[in-house]
Structures are given as C-alpha cells and as structure tokens.
Design brief:
The protein is of the alpha/beta class. The protein is built from 6 helices and 13 strands. The chain folds into 2 domains: 126 residues, Elongation Factor Tu (Ef-tu), domain 3, CATH 2.40.30.10; 146 residues, 3-Layer(aba) Sandwich (Rossmann fold), CATH 3.40.50.80. The strands form 3 sheets. A 6-stranded antiparallel β-sheet has the order 4-3-8-1-2-5, covered by helices on one side. It has a 5-stranded parallel β-sheet with strand order 11-10-9-12-13. The chain has a two-stranded antiparallel ribbon with strand order 6-7. The chain is globular, with a radius of gyration of 19 Å.
Length: 287
C-alpha cells in the first residue's frame, strides 16, 4: 500500500513519556527508543509485528496538514515493560539529499520524533498490518532477519514469547546486521534488552557489521547467513518454520543473495519462497 491509502481519519493523541538515545552521543547515527502513553479508553489494540502511524504536524508541502510515517511497534501487546496503554517505537534521525541541488534536508517525521521531549503530544493512527505475526504454535521455528531499525518487531516478538508466553519450544534464530557494533540496536553498550534472552535454550542471535563502516558500506549480512547455511536450510526444509525479514530494501537484497547461494540457484530459492508464502510462513516488513 502507498501511504496515501492508509486510513488516518481517527487519530489518537498519545503522550511521549520517554525518549532514550540508544546509540552513543559521539556516534554519527542517532537512534532513539521512544515510549508513548495512550489516553485511557483509546481503542488502539495491537499485536507484535504491527506498525503504528505517526502524524507529524504541519503545515507541510502542498498544504498537507499532516505528514504520515509508519514505524514498527517495538513492544509486545501488553505494553512497554508490561505497562497498559503504552507502546514503543525505534526511530533513526534521517536526512535526505536533494539529487538536483545537493542540499540536505531533515526527514520530517523522524526529526519531529527525535526532537520531541517527554510530555509532548504525538498523534498516532493504526495499528496497521497483520501478516507479520508470531505463530500460534510454540513448537514452530522462527528465522528472523533484520537490519538497522528492522530489529524493532523482533524485539516485540522475543519479549512476547519469553516474557508473556513463558518460553518457546521451537528454534528462534535472529540474524541482524548494522553499520557497526554501536548500531546493533538493543544489543550495544547503551541498551542490552535482547541480551536478557541469550540464556534461553531455544534462542540464538548472530550479528554482522559493515566491513568498512566509515565508508557507509552495508553490513555483511549475506556472509553471516552463509556461515550458518546448514542450519538455515534445515529450518527452511522444516514445515514448522516461519521466516521474517525486516528493515530497509538492502536487508531483503542481502537475504535473497544468501538464500540463492544456499538454495543452489535463483529459481530454486524463488520456488521455495513461493511455497513458504503459499503456506503463510514467509513475511517481509520492508521500509
């Protein structure tokens, strides 16, 4: 769907209650973990894997009153840290380069959110999306692949299955890429949320960083996947495995590149992915 197709006719005014920078202050990339409180009685029930719409106030270009952007919800259905009527999102402050003038412009929604302070109102809509969700059967396997802020829905997944469902009997494998160790969100020295689950027998996480982060090279996610090709293909062959891919387009490109090599050919991977999609066991959340 295009952003213009989303229903934003019934927005809810949430309140920002916390904004934590989860990358170092001296680091180029600013990524923040934001917690928002919904008003009592707000009808905004969500589940893991869904996205929320943020309406950055205008005026904007072409006379638009709001600027809509979608963000994956990073908390489980019971709320951030189990607090009712709350949810969290992971936001990277973005800038865009005008290809004609060469000027740099701030991303409207990301800068609005990163500049917001606790107590500020934030209009939200949604939730949106239902296909990117935790399987009902806890003996299912989950193969999760993400880059950058694509970690957000997986944070929600992991919190839900280990904190609210009491554990998971199937395999849970997370492959995550970032520009550097400091951008391994929820897995760096500024925030170690995901480390809470490393001791669980069913959960394993693997990380890839850019070989040359100073030159903005993408993380070597495809190489990381290839290092674990045997277990990955064993999971793909298992009819109880669900595959989730989240992040920017390069996350999908890196994943496909690795899977083509693991499957033996592009056609072999396309056929297998088609089978997974037909059985509802493959989903992408690409920004």
């Amino acid at each position: 769907m295009y952003l213009s197709e989303y229903d934003i006719t019934n927005p809810v005014t949430a309140t920002l209650v916390a904004s934590e920078r989860i990358t170092p202050l001296n680091w180029e990339a600013e990524v923040r973990h934001l917690v928002l409180q919904l008003p009592q009685g707000a009808e905004l029930d969500f589940v893991e894997g869904q996205s929320i719409g943020v309406l950055a106030p205008g005026p904007h270009a072409f006379g638009n009153k709001h600027h809509l952007r979608l963000y994956s919800i990073a908390s489980s259905r019971k709320g951030e840290a189990g607090k009712e009527n709350t949810f969290s999102i992971c936001v990277r402050r973005c800038f865009y380069l005008d290809e004609i003038s060469g000027e740099q412009y701030p991303g409207v929604a990301s800068n609005f959110l990163c500049d917001a302070r606790p107590g500020d109102p934030v209009q939200v809509t949604g939730p949106y999306g239902a296909h990117f969700s935790v399987p009902a059967d806890d003996t299912s396997n989950m193969l999760m692949v993400g880059v950058g802020t694509g970690i957000a829905p997986f944070r929600a997944f992991v919190r839900h299955i280990y904190e609210e469902r009491g554990g998971w009997r199937g395999k849970v494998r997370l492959f995550y890429g970032a520009k550097s160790g400091m951008e391994l969100l929820y897995r760096n020295e500024h925030n170690k949320d995901m480390a809470l689950y490393y001791d669980d027998a069913s959960f394993r996480a693997f990380e890839a960083v850019s070989p040359r982060p100073a030159f903005d090279h993408p993380p070597a996610l495809d190489n990381l996947l290839l290092q674990h090709r045997e277990e990955i293909w064993e999971m793909v062959d298992d009819p109880k495995t669900y595959i989730f891919v989240a992040g920017l387009e390069n996350a999908k490109a890196k994943f496909d590149k690795a899977m083509i090599a693991i499957a033996g050919s592009e056609q072999a991977w396309q056929n297998r992915r088609a089978d997974l999609q037909a059985s509802g066991r493959y989903a992408e959340l690409i920004y």
